[in-house]
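Treating backbone geometry as a discrete language has practical consequences that deserve illustration. Part of our work consisted of pairing the sequence of a single chain with a tokenised description of its backbone. We regard such an encoding as a compact summary of how the chain folds. The amino acid sequence and the backbone structure tokens for this protein are reproduced below.
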Amino acid sequence: MAYIQFDNIYKVFPGNMQALKGITLSVNKGELVTLLGPSGCGKSTLLRCLAGLETVTSGKIYLDGVDITEFSPRQRAIGMVFQQYSLFPNLNVEQNVGFGLHIKKMDRKSINEKVGTMLDMVGLTEKTKQYPSQLSGGQQQRVALARALVMEPKVLLLDEPMSAIDALLRRNLQSEIRRIQRDLKITTIFVTHDQDEAMVISDRIHLFNVGYLEQSGTATELYASPKTKFAASFIGHYNIVNASDFNTLTGSSYPCTNVVVRPEVIGISNEAADRAGAWTLKGAVRGSTSHGNIIRYAVQCGRVEFNIDILYDTARLYHEGSEVFITIPENDVLQVEEK
């Protein structure tokens, strides 16, 4: 059995609101897995069920081979970091981190050693006497992380811990969390709605949709091989095209409802390219948007509009209304299920 096992978990809230609909998934020891999906899809509810903050309606949860479904939160030895840092405003950094150890009545010398080690790990040794109001959002998040880790939990749960932090600091914290997780070899479950964050930080991703587990796999597997229309729409910015319209454009004969194509695999040029194993289509540029070093063009081909991503190059700029040719490699066209 895996280190953590969710077995057919259902969670129904008052009013017959079904938050989880038969979730079965496993987490191996030492992994960092991400529960990914839009708001209201059930990912945080599953995390809270594992922590014991919500009771499951039916199903079983196992941790290290033990059925913990009916255990209290304290019996589960699980550490959790919330979106809200929940630091004690009247305690300084070292007091916040050591709070749980004091509750366990650990001797002062051991507390000081453990707190010192943990603050060094999260890079806050110079902030020990400061209070939460004197810290930045990123520093407060590090304190919350240290407070959870100092208790040496069996599992670390992170519930959208960086959603309130600016983009640059978030990227730095992603790297720090990943480094700490690997150094400690602690089994970690991370919840986010940000696909880019999930791709960067995870050993494995579980994609949720309206209470169901939509697809599981590594970041590469989910990015390159979405199995459903929802997975393609949520990860990778895929072009999702009605198969009938695509067949008409290309002369192909896909039997499915939809085909999907990543925007970065489509070529664009001013001249028709005779490229083996690819369709060449004539179209018109409807507009473009800048994404840093990437420009995304919207090109209308018949009834279908394609998004195309290319690296920014002043020698290759296409203006709105201009006629262009796009190439779509046959091997990069995927068929997906409607669900």
Residues 4-233 form a domain with the Rossmann fold fold (CATH 3.40.50.300). The longest strand covers residues 278-291.
